[in-house]
Amino acid sequence: MKDLIAYCGLDCEKCDARIATVTGDDALRERTSKLWSELNQAEILPEAINCMGCRVEGVKFAYCEEMCSIRKCAQKKGYSTCGDCPEVKSCSDLAMIIGNNAEARANLCL
Questions:
Q1: How many angstroms separate the CA atoms of 3 and 66, rounded?
Q2: Residue-wise pLDDT tens digits, 68-87
Q3: How far apart are CA 10 and CA 17, in angstroms?
Q4: For the segment 12-36, what is each residue's pLDDT rounded down to a tens digit?
Q5: H/E element holding 1?
Q6: Neighbour-count burial for 14-37, b at 16+ CB within 10 Å, e otherwise
Q7: Contact 29, 49 (CB under 8 A)
């Protein structure tokens, strides 16, 4: 599995935070912070939009590094992704992502 597939199956390579970080695109950071602030009903500043990917070395978006229960669980259990977990199909933390994102499900080989 490629390194830029997150623990949850999302493709970090397609994430606007990673794209903005890699390309230094401040306009994309601004758009992403506005969208993510609206979606999460919390202020997310453009300078917070920095990430190299969930499973690779480098800077992480604060939520992903510090608060993501999916990432914490997979790391604790030593899994490359949630696709390695025998409980993947019944996981309540992962349900919203794999229930609404066919690409994430496919990336986890479900």
A1: 20
A2: 999 999 999 999 999 999 99
A3: 13
A4: 999 999 999 999 999 999 999 999 9
A5: none
A6: ebbbbbbbeeeeeebbeebbeebe
A7: yes
